[in-house]
Structures are given as structure tokens and as C-alpha cells.
Amino acid sequence: MKVLVLIGGGRSGIDLFQSLLDGHPQIMQFPHHFHFNEFWKKVKHFKEPSKILSIFISDNKKCFDSRINKVERHDQLGENKNEHYSVDENTFKLHFLKVFNRLEFNSYNLLYSLHAAYSLSLHEDINKKKLIVLHLHHISKLFDLEKIDFEILYTIRDPLSSISSFINHWGSFEGGKNLVPYSYFFYINRTFNGLKSCLNSKFKTHVIKFEDLHQRNEAVMRSFCKEFDLKFFPLLTKSTFMGLKWWGDIYSKKFLNGINKNYKSNYDPEIFHERDIALIEFYLRDFINHYRYPVRATQKNSIINKFLLLKSELLVLKSLIKNSLIKHIFYYFIYLIKRMIILNKNNFKNLKLPNNLGKDT
To answer: Which of 29, 69, 159, 309 could form a disulfide with 62 if both were Cys (CB 3.0 to 4.6 A apart)?
Structure first.
């Protein structure tokens, strides 16, 4: 069975995309991020199914009671935001043992057995399944999936809109205590190098634009189904988990009502100097041109811009001072240097950027 790994470029709709796959009769997936690489490291030396089950259930309680998953707001599902889902652990255990005990012990068979058991616990027909969707979310989780053949689906977003969303959402969440040098650098590195890292891997990479996921939703989902030999169903246009309406994660400032066909890609000009925009668009010019993102720079980039503080970096520093996160200020300058190093004018040299699924020709 084919495995598809979901990875997002940062506030680029990867959770939204997974929610659109909910309930598809040919797809098996857990209703949240599952870092299988980390799980495999924990259990690969255990051959006892009971031990593997114990570790999986302990690490993934939100699979069985969604009220635990407050970050993704799976405790506030449904039209009235007061519903959740649950899966019986004992039923899952029985199904897992039936599937797992018939197979040789390796990483793929374990991945399959876990997903098959979860689908069976939901009373789904696993004989109809064609695709396992594994939501890793971050590029850092990708490269130690041992002996599993998979393809990658990578979601992208207008870079200025993406950075705006990160600063505004993380800056306001819990008073900005999570807007620290590491999280900022991690996000900026994803923006500049996330897709490149996927394309440099041996695995086929597909791309979906966040903007298209809203504005041209059905065309994107039909293209996705065609690519993976799946049947298109109207449910692929609805944002749900376990059939219950999903309203977006806790980092969003408001409850998001699924697909927005009137979505417009905007950015917050208060987060950028004009020279910042010139710099970002210079180093991402191949990416921006290929995926038809708008060019907003009003000046040419200067080589010195790379070594100047971005306005978003100043906002991070202000947040550290405001929250008295003194120990992070030392790391601030280390990650500032790292940010300067990752900016490369040949970022996509010798790389063939794939067309986005559902591309409007």
C-alpha cells in the first residue's frame, strides 16, 4: 500500500488538508500528527506486541479521546463546537494483534498494522484502502523513516503571508512566550529550505498551494485523487475530523469556518521593512515565480540587507524583553547568524520545482 507523508511549509494549511481527507473510504490516517520516526526508534528492539501497543497508546492518547488534543481544538468539534470523538483502546488492541501477528516485523508492517487497526476500530473496510497518510508536519521528522517507501505532499504559502501569520499568531498566543529565537529560526528555515530539502531527497514530492486549497478547492482535491488513483467524493471539500466540523487550531485568533473560496493572500506590512521584502523575494525568486506568487518589492535587494536585522527579528527581540526571557537573548544572536548563513541566492539551483496540484492553466 502506498504511503504519503504530509509536511507543511509553515502556516500553509497542512492540518486543513488532512481534515479534508477525513472519512475517505480509500485512505487510512490518524486524526493528528504522528511522528512515526520517533515511535519506531522506541519500539524497534521490542518484538512483543503488548509492549509496542503500550508505548503507542501511552504516546497517542489523543487518538482515543480527542478532548486531550486541545492544541488542534479537537475538543471543540461540530457545528456548536462542543463535540469530540473517542475510540475504544481495547478494540484497537484486538484489531492490532490480529493484523500484526500475521506479518513479519519491520517498520512498514508496523506502520500498516497500526493504521489498519485504527481503521477497523472505526468500522472501516480495510480491503478498500489504497493509501496510508502519515502526517509528520515538520521536515525534521522526515529523514529517518527506516525502509519505508513513500511520497511527500508539501503545502506552501505566499512567503510574506506565511511569515506574517507566524509572527502575529505566535506573538499573540500565550503573550508571545513561544516566540523565541529557535522557533523563529525554525520557521524561517522552513520558509527558505523546507521544499528544497524535500526535493533533494530521493522521494517524489507533490506540492499544494494554501491559496488554491481555499480558492480552487475542488480542482485541487480532484487533482490529488487523480494523482493517487483515488475516487473523488464531495466530503473532500469539507473540513472535518471523524465527521465532525473542525474550526482550526488554537494558534488561530478566531474559529475558522473550513474552506473560504473568497480567501485573499494578504500580508501585514507592519512586520516588514521595505528592504526585508526585497531580500525575501530576492532569495525566493525562483519559488515565487514558479508558483505565481505576487512580487511586492519596491526596491532592489542590496547584498548588505542579508546582514541587517529584519523587522520580524526586532519583533522577536521585543517579545523576549517583554516576557523577561533573558536566557533566550544569548541564543538570539546565534540564530541571527544562522539565519544569515541559510540565505542562498542559488537556493533552487539545479532543482526542478514540481507543479502544484490543481494548477490553474
So the answer is: 69
